[in-house]
Amino acid sequence: MAEYEDIRTGRHCVFALHAHLVFVTKFRHEVFADTHLSRMEEIMRDVCADFETELAEFNGESNHVHLLVNFPPKIALSKLVNSLKGVSSRRMRQEFPELAHHYYRATKLWSVSYFAGSVDGAPLSVLRQYIDQQNRSA
What we know:
Largest sheet: 4 strands, antiparallel
Structural class: alpha+beta
CATH topology: Alpha-Beta Plaits
Number of helices: 3
Oligomer: single chain
CATH class: Alpha Beta
């Protein structure tokens, strides 16, 4: 029954919607250390909870992060991404002022672009493993 572990129920539906998201830093600057990534994960989990979305996996490297989210059908993925990037950018820059020197005159942490891929079934376990194995060192 492992293939059914991520099935969720709503008021009028049963669903298993997963997306692999990748956000890269502005100018692909290598700015994140383990401390930054740990705090980033906490922030992303809080945002996901506000959207009734589960952050199933999180990891990253010095210039990007990977997220695996399990989201309900009522959530527009673009709105979730917008909130994840906006809130994390604002909070990270507030809590870690040293990040600002990487951006010259820019005030955003993330590039305007992002990757979103839908995943399901057997590839989901492979994707979890891939995200889990991403290096957290800067």
